[in-house]
Amino acid sequence: MRSLPVRAALLSLVLLLVGAGLWEAASTAPESAEAVSEYDMLVAGAGEKARVPGPSAVIAHAWAALSDPFYDRGSNDKGIGIQLGYSVGRVLTGYLLAALVAIPIGFVIGMSPLWQRALDPFIQVLKPVSPLAWMPLALFVIQDSALSAIFVIFICSIWPMLINTAFGVASVRRDYINVARTLELGRLRTALTVILPAAAPTIFTGMRISISIAWLVIVAAEMLVGGTGIGYYVWNEWNNLNLTSVIFSILMIGVVGMLLDRLLAGAARFVQYVD
After folding, report:
1. Residue 72: phi, psi to the nearest 5?
2. Which of 149, 166, 173, 220 can pair with 110 through a Cys bridge, CB separation 3.0 to 4.6 Å?
3. pTM for the whole thing?
4. Arithmetic mean of pLDDT, 69-91
């Protein structure tokens, strides 16, 4: 009897093939005669009906794009690898800065009811604000589109990490804290040797949520500010009416997002194993 991972992989493969087959069939099905719009003529040519390209066209484009992903022929013509590199760099910079702020503050909130009550109104007011709402203010103050995008990533990444860290710290069993007090451990040593290992799974959950949100937001932010990045690449390809490249870009965004999540999931498992 096959193991569950093998059966799950086979089922995923079947679903992929069925979905791709239906997509290809829909993309090649003949259209009924009807008026061709100006948009159709721009995208598909006069006398043709514009349609979403099928998987065969996307695969062919992906092969060509990934065979030379780091070419640079000017500001508006860079390879998919370069564009993804810009986006990942901005995400990781804003994300790590958020972690340096959110995790210590989360510890303070989780360990101190006083600080929790004092900071809660600020958190509740700022947390619901859309990250992109900060973009105009960031552009005005920072006056640099790349740094403004990093600031937006910082803002959107901070809340899941902060809240999960505070929850994880506050949920540590009191027995652990009492043992640390019995051993006369200081607050800092208690936090690092007792509370941190116990709260690590919850902290990593917040970090995984944050990286997913950050990767979502960077695409929208780069569409707004332009210049470089996968968000700008998608929007530029749309302006060029290249739907095949747009779909390929969407798939690459999904793949990179999955890899970032898997990276943090692996780090979480490693920490639990070491612990």
Report:
1. -140, 105
2. 166
3. 0.84
4. 87
Sign, CA torsion 80/86/89/95: negative
Question: What spatial distance separates the first Cα and last Cα of the chain, rounded to whole Å?
Answer: 34
Question: What does the alpha-carbon distance between residue 253 and residue 240 come to, in Å, rounded to a whole number?
Answer: 19
Confidence band of 47 (pLDDT split at 50, 70, 90): very low
Quick one: what percent of the chain has pLDDT higher than 90?
A: 37
Highest CATH level, class, for 54-274 = mainly alpha
Residue 21 confidence class, pLDDT cut points 50, 70, 90: confident
Alpha carbons 99 and 48: distance in angstroms, whole number: 52
Amino acid occupying residue 213: I
Tokens of 199: 């709260």
Q: What is the 3-state secondary structure (H, E, C) of the chain?
A: CCCHHHHHHHHHHHHHHHHHHHHHHHHHCCCCCCCCCHHHHHHHCCCCCCCCCCHHHHHHHHHHHHHCCCCECCCCCECHHHHHHHHHHHHHHHHHHHHHHHHHHHHHHHHCHHHHHHHHHHHHHHCCCCHHHHHHHHHHHHCCHHHHHHHHHHHHHHHHHHHHHHHHHHCCCHHHHHHHHHCCCCHHHHHHHHHHHHHHHHHHHHHHHHHHHHHHHHHHHHHHHCCCCHHHHHHHHHHCCCHHHHHHHHHHHHHHHHHHHHHHHHHHHHHHHHC
What share of the chain has pLDDT > 70, as a percent?
Answer: 85
Q: Within 13 Å, how many C-alpha atoms sit on residue 17's CB side?
A: 6
Residue 35 has pLDDT above 50, yes or no: no
